[in-house]
Structures are given as C-alpha cells and as structure tokens.
Amino acid sequence: MTSPEDKQRWKKESAQLKEDLKNRKKVVKTREVPITFPGKKTSKNKTSPNNTLHGSEKTDAYFRGQINIES
C-alpha cells in the first residue's frame, strides 16, 4: 500500500519534474531546402479547328462523361 509519505514524496518529485521540463532548452532542428518553381509553359499544341480531342483531352472528356460533368 502507498503511505502518505510516499504520496507526499511523489507530489514533490512531480512538481520538480514539471519545473525542470519548463526550464529546459528547446532545440529546433530545421532543414533548409531550396524551392524552385517551373517556368511558364507555352502551349504549342492548340486544338484543331474542327475541335477534335487529342491525348489527355480525350481521356479528360471520357472521365468527365463518366461522372456527368460537362466541359
């Protein structure tokens, strides 16, 4: 069984631990990483005058049709 002396000692130890943790130095480690952004892309691949879809435009239209979203 725990005695009142034990409880008193634990309270003191708890208070001491809280004080020690409050006063410790905080170490912050940072990793600096350069951030780069891609340049502006120019669109060379225009849609043809008869509005035919090519490549990803075709798949985009297909998936939009699957979930009933109109372009």
Describe this structure as you would to a colleague.
The structure is a single chain. Helix content is 44%, strand content 0%. It is mostly helical and 71 residues long. The radius of gyration is 33 Å and the shape is elongated.
Structure at a glance:
This protein is mainly alpha-helical and 71 residues long. The protein contains 2 helices and no strands.
**Mean pLDDT across residues:** 82
Distance between the termini: 75 Å
Can you tell me the residue ranges where pLDDT is under 50 for at least 5 consecutive residues?
none
H/E element string?
HH
**DSSP strand content:** under 5%
So what's the overall shape? elongated
Main pleated sheet = none
Number of helices: 2
Question: What's the total number of strands?
Answer: 0
Q: How helix-rich are the residues, as a percent range? A: 40-55%
Radius of gyration: 33 Å
Oligomer: single chain
Structural class: mainly alpha
